[in-house]
Design brief:
mainly alpha; 57% helix; 0% strand
Length: 56
Amino acid sequence: MGPRRWTALALIALAVVALFFALRGTHSDRENAPGRAASQATIKPIPSNPDLVTPP
């Protein structure tokens, strides 16, 4: 393998590593994810015994 192939292989490996860290940084922060607060505000707990729940 010539130096051009090694350079191309190194650039591809560098791009894969950069893509991995870019995706990891955007998807690992679950608390600040877009729509997280809105979905938590709309979730209501399901009672274990619906017969005991008074209607609103």
